[in-house]
Amino acid sequence: MIDFKDLVRKNYSIVILFTILFLFFLQALSDIVERIYAFALLNLEPDENILGLLFFLSPVVLLFFRKKFPEIAMLIVGEIMIISRLIEPLVTKQGIYITAGLTVASFLIFLPTFYGRTKDKNKNIGLDLGISLAIAVSLSILFRTINASIDISQYKLGQIIGWILGLIASFILFGYFLTEKESVIKDEEIEIKASFWKVLGLTIGIFSIFVILWFVFMSPTVITRWTEGDYIGIIVGILSMIAISVTVKLWRPDVINKIKTWMLWVWNGLFCLSLTLTVLVHQLRFPDDHTLYPIVAPQTAWFHQIPLALMIISSPIIYLDFLYLTREIITLKPSTRKLGGAFLIGGLYLVIMLFFQILPNIWGYLEPISPGFRDKYWLAFLIPSLLAGLAIILVKKESLNLGKLKRSYNSKIITVVVVGMIFVGTLVGAFITAPKPDYSAAGKTSLIIMTYNIQQGVNVSGDRNYDGQLELIQSIDPDIIGLQECDPTRISGGNLDVVRYFATKLNMYSYYGPKTVTNTYGCAILSKFPISNAESFFMFSDEEQIGSSQVQITVGSSIFNVFVNHPSGDEDITTVYQQQEILSRTIGLSNIIFMGDFNFRPYSQEYNLTLDAGLEDSWSLKWGIPADDRIDHIFLSTGRIVLGAQYIEEGQSDHPAYWIEMQL
Predict the structure, then answer these.
(1) Which end of the chain is more exposed for a tag (fewer CB within 10 A), N or C?
(2) Buried b / exposed e along 427-452 (16+ C-beta atoms within 10 A)
């Protein structure tokens, strides 16, 4: 007969269980917001799907329990969380955000009840949870890196990984509850010492850490798109800091015990400042005067990456703060209602921070609130990093001392080996998935050029559709691709990098611009042939910031000047200004390929301006007349011969793919 107690003890269950639960929680956070945003995007305004945010307020149920939350109910909530996470990749449409929402909701009930039923004498719990959180983040990075930003544990056959983790967590959860006499505070032992406000302050600190991990660290490609930093270098930096953090906590806790309160404040201050500056130094402030445009994005210099390096180096404070905040809450032994109230406000705080992240990107859509968020993307990172640091003030000195923690030699070795394997696996995955284009222009007589608005990688039903769009692109086999609305590398897009994914699967060079911190929908250029002199520039806007990409592509002895554009405006005159501004960039250039979702139709003022600038409509060059009622175009320098031109309407996006074959 299986001795669950023995298995739980020998397999270091708390670390394993919470590593999986934290991972599932971060995955679900990402997925629910991505789905809600995708459905809202389809209607270009908030709709009933935004009610999915109510899942964040699930701790309200704890307010109905005067005494502790029943152990059996806690077990059920934990199992619901695991099952919902495993079902989520198998469903579509609203089913995704319902299952992801149940995962988030269950976690926000499970965690406070776990805090409330854990003995404060168990000094290892805070340490265990701090280590679990760090390993969960490293697993998230691993799973996303080895599949070019899409979490492999939620993708096709890779879901087997998720199921294995889920079964392990479910098994441990049952075993944990069979040992409840050793880990649960009896009713008569409960002594409520803390005020609600202190519990709330500690909880906001914990939720701030969740926000930082969600917004920044669970997917390293997020930071890469902010800064144009080295992708592999960023991965190495983040994972190295996690490995050091875990190793020190396991093998040299005495080092942590020597940290003074003022050192924690300085460390938190450095992290807060460096994180905010990592975003801020890459942001721009955009004027409201259209005569000041176009504005060319400054080239990234080495000194712009100093805040990034400092942020990564100081990032272990995240997990140390979480350790201390967790220990303090457990020591206080707050009632279920106090924990429920604090976590309810914490869930509301998550929703508020979500809008701090999203509103700078859609500042023209939700008046009168959203315009005030223009150019203030950095606030979404200053606030949580500041609050996480301030929450440490509430931690008593006794909680900062880990004491002499007893941990077996084998458990230390196993944990360090696991972290090391994650590190190595992630690096191998990063190198394997890096595109290695090796195409020859020898004997080539034509180029296939394609423009495609991929609507953040979703289809007309609002479901993520990277592979459907990729299959369509592969069927055309273009030499040069211009992508629009390809910037989901934010929480609104699941922190995914569709440009990296496409470049990996197509084995092509790529350039994405502008940086995501400038809050545009973004344009990208993919090419079988080398890209050089890449830069981004901005046009005037009255609704959302408009950014475009410009590169040179060398095909044999020919150099092409390639532009990808996606103008948009609330007023008709705005798009006229935008077209004038981008056309000013083409003056004096030859071999121009000018493509995108232009949001204008043939014979419009913007269309005529383009022809007056000396460019020709590729569809007209092939078929003799413009493509009626089309807004996706490819314009070329005069004198070019178009051998083929076609729109493909497959429903893979809300736009057709338009491609041409141009004679060299």
Answers:
(1) N
(2) bebbeebebebeeeeeeeeebbbbbb
Please, which residues bridge with residue 564 across strands? 549, 595
Alpha-carbon distance 461 to 597, whole Å?
A: 20
> How many Å apart are CA 445 and CA 647, to the nearest integer?
22
> Would you state the structure tokens that stand for residue 506, as one six-digit string?
């197509």
Strand partners, 647: 658
Structure tokens, 303: 């000194």
Q: State residue 474's pLDDT score.
A: 97
Structure-block tokens of residue 148: 């070019």
Q: Between 13-43 and 196-212, two packed helices, what is the crossing angle to 10 degrees?
A: 70
CA distance 484 to 633: 12
Burial class (CB in 10 A: 0-12, 13-18, 19+), 407: middle
Only one residue has tokens 């479910």, namely: 170
- Integer Cα distance of 605 and 193 in angstroms: 71
pTM of the predicted protein model: 0.94
Q: Note the helical H segments in 252-300.
A: 253-257, 261-280
**AA letter at 462:** G
Q: Which residue has the tokens 């990749």?
A: 89
Residues 6+ apart with CB under 8 A from 536: 296, 297, 513, 514, 515, 547, 548, 549, 550
Per residue in 220-255, pLDDT tens?
999 999 999 999 999 999 999 999 999 998 888 888
| Domains contained in the chain, CATH given | 4-284+298-431 (1.20.1250), 435-663 (3.60.10.10)
Residue type (1 letter), 487? D
Residue pair 331/120 in contact (Cβ under 8 Å)? The answer is yes
For residues 359 and 373, the answer to whether their CB atoms sit within 8 Å is yes
Residues whose CB falls within 8 Å of the CB of residue 193, separated by 6 or more in sequence, listed in order: 332, 333
3-state SS, one letter per residue, for 150-215: CCHHHCHHHHHHHHHHHHHHHHHHHHHHHCHHHHCCCHHHCCCCCCHHHHHHHHHHHHHHHHHHHH
Q: How many CB atoms lie within 10 A of CB 387?
A: 20
**In degrees, to the nearest 5, what angle opens at C-alpha 187 toward C-alphas 186 and 193?**
105
Amino acid sitting at position 561: N
Longest dimension (CA), the chain: 89
Residues 606-617: tens digit of each pLDDT: 999 999 999 999
Residue 24 CB neighbour total at 10 angstroms: 27
Give backbone dihedrals phi and psi of 432, rounded to 5 degrees, phi first. Answer: -65, -40
Q: What's 69's DSSP letter?
A: P
| 193: pLDDT strictly greater than 80 | no
| Structural contact between residues 489 and 225, judged by C-beta atoms closer than 8 angstroms | yes
- Give 357's contacts (C-beta < 8 A, 6+ positions apart): 215, 377, 380, 490, 491, 492
Enter the tokens of residue 159: 């879901």
What is the dihedral angle through the alpha carbons of 249, 253, 255, 256, rounded to the nearest 10 degrees? 70
